[in-house]
Structures are given as C-alpha cells and as structure tokens.
Amino acid sequence: MDTKILVVDNDKSLLQNCKSVLETEGYAVDYCMSHSEAESLFKNNDYVLMMIYMPECYAETVQLIRSARSVRPGMLISAVSDAPSHGSLKSAVAAGAKNYLRAPVAQPQIIAEAKKAVSRAAEGHSCCSDITPEILAGLDEIIKNNKSRQGALIPVLQAAQELIGYLPVDVLKRVASGLDIPESEVHGVVSFYSIFTMKPKGRHNIRVCLGTACYVKGSEEIVKKISEELKLDVGGMTEDKKFSLETVRCLGACGLAPVLVVGKETFGDVHAKDVMNLLKQFE
Ligand code: FES
C-alpha cells in the first residue's frame, strides 16, 4: 500500500517541488492550496504526514490542524512557516501540530520529515490501528455528554474503555483536552485503578489468578501452559487478536481455586492439563 503524504501550501511552485522530492522517494503525494480541499482529502485518505504552511493570518490554518488531528490522530502534522511568531507556533502545537519547519524547507528536511512520519505511524499502528474516525466520533460524544458533570473523568474513561476495549495514549490525550484537565491527571487515574488498561485486549481476555489459594493449587502452571500453547506472554495478545492473557491477585473465589476467568465467565478447579480444552469453546 502507498505511503501517503498531504502538502498544503499557498504557493503552487513550492507544492510541486515538495511533491516531486517526495515522489522520487516513493511516497504518494497529494497537494492542495485550499483548506476545504485539504479537509476533504484527509477525511478520505489515510495520510501519515500533513505538511501545512502557516500564513501570517493563521487562525483558519489552526482550525484546519485541529480538524486534521481529530480525524487522523495518528497522522504527523508539521507546520511550515517563513515568519513564525510565538503565537502562531503555540496555537499550531495546541491544535495538534507536532513539528515546526522553517521555510523554505530543504530537500533533506522534507525527506527526513516523511521518514519520521512513517516510523511514527508504524509505532501508532501497533497499538491504535483499531481506532477509526467512527470510534473517535463516539468518544467525542461520550466526552460531550459528561463534560458538565462533576467527577466526569472516571465515567468517561469507563465508557471509552467499553467502546474501544482499552485506553491508548491518544485516547487519554483526547479525554484530557475534551474535559479540560491535565494529561498527567488522566494518566494518574488510569494507572491507579486496575479496571483500566492501556493495552489492547483480545476478543477473549483470560485472567489467571495467582493469589495464594490459587497459586498453591498450581495456577502458575496454567499460565505457563497457556503461554506456551498460544505463544502468548502475560500482558500480550495473540496475533489473531483472539486471546489476551493477564494474571491477577485473588478474584475473590478462593474456594474454587485455582480460578480462571475468560471474558466474564469464571471457571474453578482448573488444571493446566485441561486448560487448552476449556479454551476451545471460545471462538
Ligand atoms: S486466590 Fe485465587 S481466587 Fe482467591
């Protein structure tokens, strides 16, 4: 699949130059001079990078950056300016631009920016490829419906996790900015409460209890067996996203030890030799 880049500028010759540099490097490049065209392009194309020129009157450009960040959270947005003011850069960054490039941008810099965007996208795709614009719209709705409520953070995070399955960094950032609270506070809450997870889960999340009662009855062997058979580390997910594996400390069902929970179903008196059979029922 082509690696796509969008360039937005008000100078056609610069756009064409940028396009030819990037195309020589193998990227697929769209360029445009109007903001409405840019908006329609990034809504319909999965760009890794948008390079956008910041004119002297930058309010509309900032608005476009904000919209692009909202629609394509994984896309690198680089603001280009030949006369950057502190205000314009601050606004561009607050809206979602990650980098600033001083115009005119030299060829090696253009190429370096594209490479940076590709590696950023690769990192992002490993954790956030399942976050579609529709999911983001759902998340925004959750934030909007709870914003005026006191103590909105935890219910918003719960609803977001229910919607997405986990809470990746970009979602935490969006919640923080949507509720007007510091990102550090959102991270703090997510790491404090064990109900929240920042790691993606499989369709069936397996939780094996390693509390004392379960441990002495061999629950560690269950973990080992699942790990070996499914080639799955604790905290990880199988390649087909079918199973993820966690260990927990006491599920409050010690009388059934050793205990295993798959999704919402609890299984007691489970033994390592039987566990793979038990998992067969999950599609
Ligand atoms: S120790 Fe496993 S359920 Fe309590």
Task: Provide structural commentary.
With 283 residues, this protein is of the alpha/beta class. It contains 12 helices and 9 strands. Helix 3 (59-71) links the parallel strand 3 and strand 4. Helix 6 (133-146) packs parallel to helix 8 (169-179). It is elongated and about 75 Å long. The structure holds FE2/S2 (inorganic) cluster (FES). FE2/S2 (inorganic) cluster is lined by residues 209, 211-214, 250-251, 253-254, 257, 259. FE2/S2 (inorganic) cluster binds at residues 209, 211-214, 250-251, 253-254, 257, 259.
Write the layout of secondary structure elements.
Blueprint: E1 4-8, H1 12-24, E2 28-32, H2 35-44, E3 47-53, H3 59-71, E4 76-81, H4 86-95, E5 99-102, H5 107-128, H6 133-146, H7 153-164, H8 169-179, H9 183-192, E6 204-209, H10 212-216, H11 219-230, E7 243-248, E8 260-262, E9 265-267, H12 272-279
Parallel strand pairs: 1-2, 1-3, 3-4, 4-5, 6-7
Antiparallel strand pairs: 6-8, 8-9
Helix pairs in contact: 2-3, 3-4, 6-7, 6-8, 7-8, 8-9, 11-12
FE2/S2 (inorganic) cluster (FES) binds next to helix 10.
